[in-house]
Amino acid sequence: MSVRPLRRRSKRSLATQIRIVWVIALLALVAGAGLAYALITAPQFRVTAVETHIEGRTIARGDVLARAQIGAGENIWLIRTHAAAARIDAIPYVLDARVERRLPATIAITVTQRSPIACLGVRAPLTIDASLRVLADGCVRPDLVRIDAPVPAARPGATIQDPNLAGLVRDTLTLASAGLTLRSASRDPFGGLAAVDTTGVQLLFGDDADLAAKAALVGPIRQAAKRPLRSVDVRAPATPVVSYR
To answer: For residue 3, is it within any domain?
Structure first.
């Protein structure tokens, strides 16, 4: 009986292997393109609702929708959510905006509102928040602190880049945290901090060093006063000076 020799399997050449890989890649590409086309053209992915969740009452829903520029019937996958959020962020009172897809056909917009903390200037004031973002022309509320300082040219939505004004705003927030309710804040001729509280008492703080500690002296001084105060000077904290009406 004769025995046939076993045939050795021939190894695929490198060129053959590359061709197989390319064919598989091409098939995957065609399948991916077909899936993408199906997603883009599928009627169930066309926007039927835009939900808005807006913190506060200052920002109008109509303004948010106008900036988002999302039309009914638009394919949900073709909407550039980051670009829509950036357009909404340009609304002066908007602190943060998020635009999200909620399958199959809803867009959800969440907006966080900025809080006004002061009015900058006296004659033509601007309402600003803690980051010096201009929220509106004019002073939107009479109870906001008036920061008596030169007003730069800025439109609502812009952020003022001024270290001196930024320092005044920080000082105002420090005094508010200490429980002082202010009518106005400004710099004295020597660059020190001066303020007037809501009762009309002038408060002199001098430089910003230990401002919180200086502010903490004002309350006890007011409580100990036997007559209506005109001013409280804590520029030298160890020896406060008061004057009466």
So the answer is: no
Contact yes or no for 172/147 (Cβ under 8 A): yes
Alpha-carbon dihedral sign for residues 165, 170, 175, 181: positive
| 144 in Cβ contact with 136 (< 8 Å) | no
Instruction: Tell me which residue range forms the domain holding 85.
Output: 45-113
Residue 30 domain-assigned (yes or no): no
Q: What's the pLDDT score for residue 143?
A: 95
| 133 domain-assigned | yes
Burial degree of 122 (CB within 10 A; 0-12, 13-18, 19+): middle
pLDDT for the residue numbered 124: 87
Is 11 a domain residue?
A: no
Instruction: Give strand ranges (E) for the chain.
Output: 49-54, 94-102, 106-113, 118-120, 126-128, 134-137, 145-148, 182-187, 193-197, 202-206, 229-233, 241-244
Q: How many helices (H) and strands (E) does the chain have?
A: 5, 12
Residues of the chain with pLDDT under 50: none
Residue 42 tokens, joined:
């599928």
